[in-house]
Amino acid sequence: MDETIRILVVEDDDDINKLLCKIIKKSNYKPQPAYSGTEALIYLEKQKYDLVLLDLMLPGMNGEKILAKIREQGTIPVIIISAKNEKETKIHSLRSGADDFISKPFDVDEVSARIDSVLRRYKESNIAHKKVLTHKDIHLDLETKTVHVNGEEIALTVREYKILTLLMTSPKKIFSKANLFESVWGEIYHGDDNTVNVHVSNLRNKLAKANPNEEYIETIWGMGYRMKS
Question: Fewest CB within a 10 Å sphere: which of 33, 105, 124, 182?
């Protein structure tokens, strides 16, 4: 099953479009640039996307009309990125179905964080109906918050459980230490690698004890962690 996160970038300014695509690639997602509303609609008809970054001032069909058409079709999350940053524009966009609004000029790290936040909220809402996450012989019950490995229940701390849940929710995604820390601890990451390392190491040891013949979490050096396929 293809777990690639695809993001459609609808922005007519070539430099800004390239910058947004670069931000997306850095988070290990796959961007698809589009430079007009019409082009965006063509891509949306051909491919399923996990998120749309949408400028409002576009040639041909404007962003408001694109947003309306996206909402007619379904619930793909949409982040508006626009220089039209008046309060009324923001409120109208959010009430029309946008999930977030980022004003130009934007901060690169903020855009990255907001993309992750919207994708996470959307993923959580999608898996809310699921009772159990599975990967290899790990069975994680979201209702009872219990974890079984190789048929044996293992006791995890709250942090370990949250780390495992996050990794299993997107098993193909590489989570940086900053991703893990900010998602699990709910605080700004200041480069304290040791905190994340210790918790991931403890989690790995518990998984390995339940099944010594399997490896579940792999380290992607210089990038972070993900579930081992």
Answer: 105
